[in-house]
Amino acid sequence: MHKNSLFVHKASNLCNIYFALFLLICIFAGMIDRATVDKIMDAVNIVDVVGEFVNLRKAGVNYKGLCPFHDDKTPSFMVSPARQICKCFACGEGGNAVNFLMKHEQITYPEALRWLAKKYNIEIQERELNEDEKREQSERESMFVVNEWACQYFHEILKNDVDGQAIGKQYFRSRGIRDDIIEKFQLGFALTKRDALANEAKRKGYQREFLVKTGLCGENEKGLYDRFAGRAIFPWLNVSGKVVAFGGRKLDAATKGVQQKYVNSPDSEIYHKERELYGIYQAKKAIVKEDCVYMVEGYTDVIAMHQCGLENVVANSGTALSVYQIKLLRRFTPNIVLLYDGDEAGIHAAMRGTDMLLQEGMNVKVLLLPDGDDPDSFARKHTSQQFKDYIEAHQTDFIQFKTELMLKNVKDPIKRAEAINSIVRSVSVIPDPIVRATYIGECARRLEVDERTLITQTNKYIAGDREEQRKTAEREEQRMSSAERQQQEDTSFYRLSFESTVERLIIQNIIRHGDEVIFSDLEADDGSTVSLNVAQYVDYDLSQDNLSFSTPLYNKVLREAVEHSDDKDFKADRYFMQHPDPEISQLASMLGIDSHQLSRSFERQENERDLRQRMQHLILDFRMDIVNQHMKEVQRQLKDAGSDMELVRELMEEYKQTQELRNALARQRGTDVIV
After folding, report:
1. Which among 317, 311, 303, 294 has a CA at the least distance from the CA of 178?
2. pLDDT higher for 456 or 473?
3. Which residues pair with 365 in a beta bridge?
4. End-to-end Cα, the chain, rounded Å
5. Count of CB atoms situated within 10 Å of the CB of 480
6. Distance (Å, whole) CA 175 – CA 185
7. In this predicted structure, what is the pLDDT of residue 259?
8. Quick one: which of 660, 572, 596 has its CA closest to 82?
9. Which one has a higher pLDDT value, 667 or 152?
10. From residue 376, how far is each of 73, 251, 306 by CA, in Å?
11. What's the rounded Cα separation, in Å, for the pair 388 and 493?
12. CA-CA distance, 423 to 410, in Å (whole number)?
């Protein structure tokens, strides 16, 4: 249906969306109230916080050191005590103290706040939850509490119980695992009695419901029974260090004739096996430091390599590598070495995840250990340096690995062609065109095939993938109801469909100057006088035509700046820098850095008139962007109108009106009229 109006207002829908987002943020933030957040941020000294992880030295009014987020050779990481922000001028990472902790420690926003509260001895105050929030949070927290207790329970049995020491600890000692590593991974032992944990948990007051939901216990007609009875226990910690699951191994003496040596916790509200990696919590700092991660198969491989001194290692423990696990690793490093034993199972495991890793932009290398060795046994035979040297000398990129594997002793031309096609298919999924082109050249050299032939075949695969994506999108479009399509059409022109430069500049000014008055003593309709600050002016002007920003986060910033404009102590830059939504605080920090670097010394003091003129020009530029976008859309519709003369006439009239609007805006901007 054709639209008669350029700007269609959907404020009520947006408000609903924003409220839902705000609610989720509150839940995510652990319900820490605003006053407590302010108290924490007021107490923070970013130099002290960063200084716990980075060796800083004075550099004028600021501090600098080697960036902890990339392999920094010369100090490029700057910290500003005046602005309470930091930034690496090489890799671009930065923000306030909370943002720094979240990135460096790979923790959540509330965890970063709690870290700071503990450092500065501030008591955490949390707001009252509603009933639904209480129920949801209570269930998850109860499961975490039960798991944490169970982890301690299994660990204490291993250390102090007679059977734990005689059976469990003896098993770990037989694998050469030291006591410090047992402590590091919180290894444990479950008593052989089938209801030992269940009875102790009930005695401690833990609810039956959560013992079952976490998978610690099963349930039958006789009651609760322990899932892990008689097994060595390997706790699973998520990236934040919370116990989400357990792995239990039958001891060597009990594995004869037993097919299932390992039993793992089932999926639950807090654990999804395709989203977790064993050892990620213990490995995350080393992964960032080394800018590389080793992927192995099992628990003992991870533990043995830690004991050997190689800590940047994780395991997917028998499950197929998932996109979620790859994205989790990608947060720490793009470089991965698949480290498996050289038997058929190890080769299969290496092949299985290669294409998926490449598709997610990972740089993949493969190392198959000598026959008869797995990472566990190999680590026990070698020192850390020997293991590192061996990896460095024998790891191969996936092209070499796949080529040697698939073309070894292959004489049949058809089989050789199939192998080459498989290799080219792997190359085609690499998203970076430069990396992809490099591998094509390498393939041509190794396979002795004309490079143009490989390029042609690669392009065919890429085109096929894109066509499949297009068809999938079309099928999704067809499944959309007419009401949903109409709703999309109705909202397509009241805002930009892309983030423009001017949009970002407006938000930057709201964050930096949102509380500053730029219109004083304006006469209202009722005869009273009012004043407008930057945020209020932007909101008022855009609301006249029901305009909004393309980025929901920007709309949220504007709305909150307006809501707090009447607050006596409201300072926009401080408010947004210390905002409980980590996205907003990160945005505020980065925009502050972009505009003002790390020092206040270069800031030009603007008067009311200067700031007012700047904002007026920015708003006019923003309107011009929207109008130009709409004119392009009308032109596109004209091309598609075909012989429908009625629609053509309507569109021509709309194009004319829009052109007149553009010319009016051009005159206000002081630019030439465009005809």
Report:
1. 303
2. 456
3. 337, 397
4. 28
5. 12
6. 15
7. 54
8. 596
9. 152
10. 34, 17, 10
11. 57
12. 15
**What is the structure's pLDDT at 486?**
46
* AA identity, residue 450: D
**pLDDT bucket at 600, cuts 50 / 70 / 90:** very low
pLDDT at 547: 82
Q: What is the spatial distance between Cα 346 and Cα 526, in angstroms, rounded to a whole number?
A: 80
Q: What confidence score (pLDDT) does residue 133 get?
A: 52
Beta bridge partners of 296: 315
Any bridge partners for residue 225, and if so which?
A: 218
pLDDT: is 529 or 440 the higher one?
440
Highest mean predicted confidence (pLDDT) among 53-57, 68-72, 473-477? 53-57
pLDDT classification of 496: cutoffs 50, 70, 90 = low
Long-range residue pairs from 65-68, CB within 8 A, at least 24 positions apart, any chain:
67/91, 67/93, 68/104, 68/288, 68/289
Residue 104: what are its φ and ψ, rounded to 5°? -70, -45
Can you give the pTM of this predicted structure?
0.59
The whole-chain average pLDDT of the chain stands at 80
Order of strands, sheet of 85-88, starting from the edge strand that comes earlier in the sequence: 57-59, 62-65, 77-80, 85-88, 94-95
pLDDT for residue 31: 60
CA distance 645 to 631: 19
Three-class secondary structure assignment of 436-490: HHHHHHHHHHHHCCCHHHHHHHHHHHHHHHHHHHHHHHHHHHHHCCHHHHHHHHH
> Tokens 């209480």 identify what position?
134
pLDDT of residue 186: 95
The amino acid sitting at 106 is Q
Give, for 393, the enclosing helix (H) or strand (E).
helix 384-394
User: How much is the pLDDT for 200?
Assistant: 93
Look at residues 111, 113, 103 and name the one whose alpha carbon lies nearest to residue 35: 113
Q: What is the DSSP annotation of 166-227?
A: IIIIHHHHHTT--HHHHHHTT-EE--SSTTHHHHHHHHHT--HHHHHHTTSEEEETTEEEET
H-run or E-run covering 269: none
Instruction: Judge whether 361 and 432 are in contact, CB under 8 Å.
Output: yes
